[in-house]
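Schema walkthrough. Field components (list of strings):
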Amino acid sequence: MIIALGVPGAGKTTVLKSLKTDYKIVNYGDLMLEIEKKEFGIKDRDEMRGLPIEKQKKAQKLVAKALAKMEGKVILDTHCSVATPFGYYPGLPFEFLKLWKVEALVYVTAPVEELKERRLNDPTRKRDVDDIALHDEMNKGYLAAYSAFTGAPAVVIYNRNGRLEEAVAKMQSLLK
Ligand code: AP5
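Field assembly_structure (string):
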């Protein structure tokens, strides 16, 4: 499994959609959203981070177990940490990483001003624009921990505004 990570708006999904690959792309948030809609009455993905942590963790764990049963080559689109009103919590607790065979951890990022602009210009989502730099910094700490725990390399990809093709080419080169 290759795991793609980054703060909201870093462009993980955009980069992954542009790949030419036989890897199956799985979005962790999509699977959690399905569960949280059924179990907790959530209506859209931007409400998810506001649920009590225990509820988020319940859905998070169900998805981790389902992923452990998934066969074939997978790229997982997810988060190093989730910024909630109650603090940051880990996207990939070690108990999950133990269940999966992790080949690489790919962190997608961009300068904070560009991330802010993208979040403000995306009318389809309600993303916060505060504390982006702190979240990016926290994520890099989590990334190093996940890499040390799994032994999988941590790769950082810069997805600069208007330079999507460079980020896609770097991600594509990792799949060889
Ligand atoms: P998810 O859907 O992954 O939330 P997200 O971080 O908000 O992801 P996005 O898809 O919005 O951001 P992105 O980085 O993919 O950026 P995008 O490509 O859209 O997850 C939803 C929720 O699920 C999370 O909030 C969390 O609650 C939960 N969750 C997920 N994983 C979890 C886990 N492991 N544990 C617990 N909870 C978890 O691009 C953004 C915008 O930028 C777009 O408008 C795009 O067009 C633009 N853009 C991108 N690249 C460029 C570029 N190079 N130049 C110009 N514009 C660009």
